């Protein structure tokens, strides 16, 4: 391929700068305003001459980067697996991982969450093929809670009527049973 030739032209009437690139493929024109060209050149010269650091960027809009790792141990039943899949569908900020071996200890979960860049964790385990336990934890060094899941209903069994959005973040509230 041949070398590309570039020419910069500033139109005095409109104040627009155009860069014309010609080569084997044809001509392309890109127009920029004259002010943008001058400020970019002036800024690059002033930084190079003064040795000062670049000006600070605008602060970006805050994004919630909290992610939840949802996974389970080996040896769970199909109903528990459907529960885990339903939770993954309902929480758009969730991450998944392969099943954890039973012989692994619970501190391994913290390492898995750090590798997946997650700040929260939901872990399901089954004991004696009948009791489902759900661990909920704040990963780095936060509290953890262990719940016994008494009943499982999948989303296919429920009608889910109401004003719920599928992609919204779920709220968890503990109300006393009366």
How is the topology of this model organized?
Elements: E1 5-11, E2 16-23, E3 26-33, H1 34-50, E4 68-72, H2 78-90, E5 94-96, H3 107-115, E6 120-127, E7 131-138, E8 144-149
Parallel strand pairs: 4-5, 4-6
Antiparallel strand pairs: 1-2, 2-3, 6-7, 7-8
What is the CATH homologous superfamily assignment of the largest domain?
A: Brix domain
Q: How would the global form be characterised? A: globular
How much of the sequence is in beta strands? 25-35%
Kindly, what is the distance between the CA atoms of the first and last residues, rounded to a whole number of angstroms?
80 Å
Strand order of the largest sheet: 5-4-6-7-8
CATH fold node name of the largest domain: Rossmann fold
Sketch the major β-sheet: 5 strands, mixed
CATH uppermost class of the largest domain: Alpha Beta
Topology as H/E string?
A: EEEHEHEHEEE
The number of strands is 8
Q: Any guess at the CATH architecture of the largest domain? A: 3-Layer(aba) Sandwich
Question: What integer value in Å does the Rg equal?
Answer: 29 Å
GO biological process, one term: ribosomal large subunit assembly
Function: Required for biogenesis of the 60S ribosomal subunit.
Region (Disordered): 1-60
Pfam families: Brix
Structural notes for this entry:
The structure is a single chain. The protein is of the alpha/beta class and about 180 residues long. Helix content is about 20%, strand content about 30%. The chain folds into two domains: about 5-50, no CATH class; about 70-150, Rossmann fold (3-Layer(aba) Sandwich), CATH 3.40.50.10480. Mean pLDDT is about 70; it is low at about 1-5 and about 20-25. It comes from Geodia barretti (Barrett's horny sponge). This is Ribosome biogenesis protein BRX1 homolog.
